[in-house]
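mind reviewing both lines:
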Amino acid sequence: MPVTEIGSSDRLLAELRGWVEMETPSTDAAAVNALLSRAEAELGAVGAALERLPGRDGYGDTLIARTPGEGAPVVVAGHLDTVWDHGTLAGPMPFRVEGARAHGPGIYDMKAGSFLAFHAVREILRQGTRTRRPITLLLTPDEEVGSPTSRAPIEAAARGACAVLIPEPAGGPQGACVTGRKGTGGFTMTIAGRSAHAGGNWSEGRSAVVALAQAILKVHALTDLGRGVTTNVAPVWGGTRPNVIPPEAGCRIDFRAPSLAEAERVVAEIRALAGEADGLCITLEGGLNRPPLEEGPANLALYETARAIAARQGYDLPKQQRGGGSDGNFTAALGIPTLDGLGCTGAGAHAPEEHIRWQDLAPRGAVLCELLETLG
């Protein structure tokens, strides 16, 4: 059991509701910063050492809060942005509690987990709990779009850490934490062809759409479920009118791979599609965004520690590997022991049925809090 008293699930849900009812789409820096400021004020009031990194490129700020202590810190990182646009609360997804489920945009991915991390750090400071190592908490603004501005501060904090905890949503009906994730990446493919009249001058044209279709089939052929590699092409665009040979076309490409070697192979094969031939030019921009979080001895040892703590809370904590990436991919790639999926149970990430099982807030929060108190 953690030394710190974190409160009941009812109490946690009541405060979490305030976070959920502040809509924070990734693309609205002011909205994300409003919630960040709320957390900053609470942490400052209990004595956290605060550093706020100004946002850039249209994204919000990054907040870094540190607790006193000596030695390599325990880092815990969560994002405040969501995939949901303004108006979602007033429309199809109001905050509501239906039995064991609490619904709302972003409640599962990942406001519940980020709130639990914030709450644990705040209460550790408020109650004067002595931790084995200092804690570094990061609250970030742009994970849902690939962490373009927060990756650097996350990696900087992780380089000096003894362990990294990521309170992304727990997985599946049993609330599994995550010991491995696929690497993720993407490309934008653009094709330039040559326009011509589709009837009178067909042979003078070079269809960018046809070239795109051929390239898409090659990308799709890279999917190998046995090797854990998937590709997906969407959205797709091209052409102007039915009677004009299309001079331009393009698409976005998503890929996932379980190891760095597989990711590098996929990247090389996609990049090999670029070039010029027969009046057509294929250009590719992109690459690997998040390296794989590969399951290894250090991550598994951290998992066994968390599982033992969960057992004292009265529940089993299974583990799993996932196809989606998180900020834990960055820290694990640096060789820092990383345990992911430590947020609340639930389901429906990025979907209208998104919800948490709110009665699990306290037991899940207790495991995260005890890890923060005792790791090192």
